[in-house]
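Key idea: predict the complex, not the pieces.
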Amino acid sequence: MDFAHSPRAQEYIERVAAFVDTEVLPREREYLDALRGQADRWAVPPLMEELKAKARERGLWNLFLPDERYGAGLGVAEYAPLAELMGRSLIAPEVFNCNAPDTGNAEVLLHHGSAEQRERWLEPLLEGRVRSAFCMTEPDVASSDATNMAATAVLDGEEVVLNGRKWWSTGIGHPNCRFVIFMGLTDPDADRLRRHSMVLVPVDTPGVRIERMLPVLGYHDEPYGHGEVSFTDVRLPRDAIIAGPGRGFEIAQGRLGPGRIHHCMRLIGMAERALELACRRATERTAFGKPLANLGGNRERIARARIAIDQARLHVLHTAWLLDTAGALGAVGALSQVKAAVPAMVQEVVDMAVQMHGGAGLSDDTPLAGFLSTARALRLADGPDEVHLGVVAKLELAAYRERA
Amino acid sequence: MDFAHSPRAQEYIERVAAFVDTEVLPREREYLDALRGQADRWAVPPLMEELKAKARERGLWNLFLPDERYGAGLGVAEYAPLAELMGRSLIAPEVFNCNAPDTGNAEVLLHHGSAEQRERWLEPLLEGRVRSAFCMTEPDVASSDATNMAATAVLDGEEVVLNGRKWWSTGIGHPNCRFVIFMGLTDPDADRLRRHSMVLVPVDTPGVRIERMLPVLGYHDEPYGHGEVSFTDVRLPRDAIIAGPGRGFEIAQGRLGPGRIHHCMRLIGMAERALELACRRATERTAFGKPLANLGGNRERIARARIAIDQARLHVLHTAWLLDTAGALGAVGALSQVKAAVPAMVQEVVDMAVQMHGGAGLSDDTPLAGFLSTARALRLADGPDEVHLGVVAKLELAAYRERA
Amino acid sequence: MDFAHSPRAQEYIERVAAFVDTEVLPREREYLDALRGQADRWAVPPLMEELKAKARERGLWNLFLPDERYGAGLGVAEYAPLAELMGRSLIAPEVFNCNAPDTGNAEVLLHHGSAEQRERWLEPLLEGRVRSAFCMTEPDVASSDATNMAATAVLDGEEVVLNGRKWWSTGIGHPNCRFVIFMGLTDPDADRLRRHSMVLVPVDTPGVRIERMLPVLGYHDEPYGHGEVSFTDVRLPRDAIIAGPGRGFEIAQGRLGPGRIHHCMRLIGMAERALELACRRATERTAFGKPLANLGGNRERIARARIAIDQARLHVLHTAWLLDTAGALGAVGALSQVKAAVPAMVQEVVDMAVQMHGGAGLSDDTPLAGFLSTARALRLADGPDEVHLGVVAKLELAAYRERA
Amino acid sequence: MDFAHSPRAQEYIERVAAFVDTEVLPREREYLDALRGQADRWAVPPLMEELKAKARERGLWNLFLPDERYGAGLGVAEYAPLAELMGRSLIAPEVFNCNAPDTGNAEVLLHHGSAEQRERWLEPLLEGRVRSAFCMTEPDVASSDATNMAATAVLDGEEVVLNGRKWWSTGIGHPNCRFVIFMGLTDPDADRLRRHSMVLVPVDTPGVRIERMLPVLGYHDEPYGHGEVSFTDVRLPRDAIIAGPGRGFEIAQGRLGPGRIHHCMRLIGMAERALELACRRATERTAFGKPLANLGGNRERIARARIAIDQARLHVLHTAWLLDTAGALGAVGALSQVKAAVPAMVQEVVDMAVQMHGGAGLSDDTPLAGFLSTARALRLADGPDEVHLGVVAKLELAAYRERA
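Result:
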């Protein structure tokens, strides 16, 4: 049992930490002011490309990819502290080309894409030249139960025809978004987990239409955004189906595991930053003649946040280690555990930090309100807390005689 | 001990309920679409004036005012269930001319204003022709400790001169906002509670400047909004000081008590509506072959919400009854109790309802996201939870020997 | 809406409060020392009979009984504040002859007993000369679902024959316990709610055997106690069946409603006493140079306890008022609400008071450890929290379309 | 980063697990029946000596001691999973000679005792022939602030004279208890952390008197027990002072760190056992036609317990690793974190398991009620939660500018 990071991970930690501290955090305000000051909120402020170029130049690029040809070749547990550092700022993941959903889409193409798909779509994605979206969740069915999915991807000779309506397609609003990965029902008579296909769809394919952009607790998360997208008789050549028809669930399972833990890692960083801001406020602001830290239960709140964050980080690291050593199947319970526990914990820590800031915490004068929106959304995205708790309970009870 | 409402209150309950159900709720979506579809989000959609006219015509107008000359002459406990009904929709309070901060400002002018102030400002306010704001909180000091207040209202001969910066001036963005009530330091050498004055300031007075509008967790709450407002050498005749110099805290105390309980009443209605939406969703939406109501802990969450709301309502009603029978002084502890407890409870209930709705709960497709923003803000507005808990503890411990 | 107690209730409140303060609390320690110092812990210390005589003499006797012939003729809402006062000491309810399960048994006999049963058993019970037990819960089936009940009360000519095993028969250990009310299955083919009978069983009937006394979190609650009792071919004349065969559930429903609310009322008093002790400790004990009240989150804990108690009291009073005005049926949801909420709240408040006392709170130097055991047990007795939450949810959802 | 146990630890884990499963758990009931069936509850049932002999024979003895001469030579992180396994039964720690407070006293004597003290007291202690107690906490001062300590250990020529009153002296009731370690004030004028001494006191020294045994939430924890002990002019030779006068705090700090983490390790095992019992009950018991696991929020409660336990275990292991690699000083924050978090978590998990068991959970038919008492007590023993939260907050805030 050794809780020390590997020397390679340690070295990356220092470099990413330094980059976040010196390049990203000091310019976060500038970026947001630029974004909000633009006539078009759905354009990318030039500062982002500047930061991306700098990160790439320093070799801090695509760190999420365990594949050494395309990425840094880091294990999940090695990437975890780096993703945590990126999570400290809502703008940092893109700077390092490590933002969802592009990371998950890259993994899908890397593992399941054809050579042509990798060349045409994966490479520009990993270069940060294009962005992408993932179209899975649907407005009319409970997405917590993915077998409900109603959109279709039907074979018609050498073509596949897509129909249906998706929402919460994150990233679809980005001006560089060039393709989406769409999931739909191909063969309703196949085995429950072999019915669906994933299809790579260029966004300019006829029949693809962004119906509207959805706010998350008041935020549109520009320039990424979350879209409701309709697919009407969208026709693509059959080889747009990633890995072939009926492999949708198999690919999704492989995609969602890392996706979920990446979210949790970043959330830890978000909570750390929130706690830092809370501590700074608690020591700098006075009321009733004392710093806030010395009023009421504030110290206990800070201590409880520290404990909750440290426990959650260990939990995420342990899950990452399981992914590295036992694979996605060996980590399935741990993944559901962290996905059920971490966003809810971070929501609470951020909420505490908001409270410590008074009105400033509600506004956009700190990153806290954005963090609250993000943490809250992640209690639903990639499976609501309750579904993950159900998985954990099912695994726990499996060892006992169960009558139902 | 009799928990039944008076016949008069009961009759108003039925009328307000019917109005909300038949006039307001069915047109809430239309109002919001109009608001968001306008080129200028800070304009009032005509539907609002239509609804106001209808409510006024039916005698459902200014119900908050206990004064029979200007309002309905209802006691606080009689008004409570009406305010609850209005709280079911974020747009309803204005429809009945019962929205903050105009209600509080009306009470200030009614009780403390000169005849001229009442005629010039109170009457159009009560007719719903003009709107107003309240400028108390400041960005640079902890507003939880009001004695920190740094803005000044200095006498200069027959004039009073205002300087300082306020924020969270709710309502300042409304196109009909004509005046603000400003609070500032007049005499630093007076007794701690006699130092400040309240001044009635027409918004077009030279030196008054809206610096920016502040979002609350992503929402700007148009067309009301929350402003940061600077006052630079704003000169007004001395009789703009309400009730004379040094009476600011006295007036504020009288204003804040009813203001706080009105917020709590409306919050109860918000929680009821959230619970209704959650129950509807829990019975209509299915996953894993069952309605959500029959999955995981959802029924327990619904039951706990019901219990929490019922307890909170009784708490608010009891506090209202204390205000009616024992006055603001006799209700000071109860007021802090409900202010500390109700917004936090409602935040939890709404958060549960959001979760039950999945992604739809995060978006603006239901009123829940707006409710979450509002409930969260009310854990800070009019005193953060922690300050009210401090008041409750102080009163509780007063009977015991305390060394500190 | 009027939260004031009736003059009659107010007068009783003052008298009971004075009696508890001057007669009971000052002698609580003496009673407990006597009880624990006895060779036989299952004997009644003489002090109890002395206090009972005094209470009876002052007319503070059987206050729980709404029937004017036998009791004080108080409504449920009038009795509530009196039961709360009695709840301040674990020994007080018996002093006023208002302790469970004798109160519930008295109501059963009053409403459903024959003239002979009333004379022979009810009168000595109401005089405090005998005690009784209630034998409903069984060890081998989930008592949360009463239709599981396996014990039998089978008719055999002019006799009824009882067989089965009961546990948590509270009061069975008392030296004066003379009879139990037993519930068993009579006709398995009858309608689900008409299958069971209640039978009055003298404890010395052959075949009745106390197998053992059960501790509750380490406490045996002497001299009352909680027994596991076997019934083996216990034969009684048929008229021992209260109100006739098959009426068991009907009687139980009438018995359990008041029983549950009486528990909740007393729990409020227990929480008040715990909070008093916590406040006293918080002001008298110092650490790190300050009274505990000024350390960490202690003030917030005190404030939250005050709020929770006040909300719960109002909730209980409202439920009592519903019982008075709408009857048991009209109060069924409210009863489940308070039963699900109040014991859990009191457990938390007492736990907080224990923590404030350090080691002393764990020991029997304060009444807190006993309170903790009692409050914890009441989250299970008379229906576990979860069953009551289920009732509340079912009622809440009934208005909506439900598919399951 | 490697979460795998060392091969040596893994081998011990398997052996201890097998011993607990095959020797201890199957005989737990037999032990408790023997203990409670004895005329004298303060005698050791012979089964205990039988189990101790077996454990010692198998080399599963004194595993807590990192010192290879006396113990197994395991690091703290290696011992952690073993202590967890022992924590599954309240009787197991003694079986392995790894029970508090003997473990802590052994460490004190090993590190600070004279050769003579080690020979005369440490060796029989490590052989399990004698037991001991630790006399630190006092009834009249807040023990959370150890500098309050009022008992004295005054030098008088070649003797040291002890006076004062201690309580919560765990183990003092054991028939084999031969000595206590007493802490008292020696030099009030010395530096705050150099004023106190620790003295080894044979229990038969004149002037030592057990005043009474204290219950913990109704449990006396026989045959160990918790005593209130008076010391009246207890005279001992000066060399009874461990490590010499004034070293009390230094020794205490070294003693308490491992003591606290051992408690936390065992608590994790207690929680695991409680969760197992809850799962077994949830699958075997039915109500309303379903296993409890499928009712209400029970699955979510099980899932949350699993998550809480796994997070806490990782937290404890990380703290153990810090103790091994960074020493007591490097682990001070982590130690306070786990001590503040783990007992409270375990109290909740056990409380959930009690609830799942209904009345059986309250009684002694399962180990749960005893677990609840133990977990609750450990929120106070070795420093109340609040003091540890204060330490965590202080360390957290140290990096920020603090005005108070």
